[in-house]
Amino acid sequence: MAEEAADKLKPIVRPLWWLDPHDETTYGIFDQFALGDDLIVAPVVTKGAVSRDIYLTAGTWQDVFDPSFVVQGGQYLRDFDAPLSKLPAFQRVIDVEVVGVAGGGDGVCV
How many domains is the chain partitioned into structurally? Predict the structure, then answer.
């Protein structure tokens, strides 16, 4: 990432719209960020909160702390579990079939 930042003048920490400039939903999200193009981080910024809504851009995303949870992006994950001990973070996945959808059951990687 540092090499890409130096060579191509891309920031290491990026706003969500950087990942999908045509997704207007990302324009108003200021409490999530991307590290490079393949990691979305959504810290809890509300005192006392233990869950939060998380927006994932287009593509397939996998929970960093629970790799069995895989979902399609381009949507919000509502009331995602986010206790103080777990920083919500999702990594982009390539070549994975997604079974299940956010809010409709667990996403399962097969």
Answer: 1
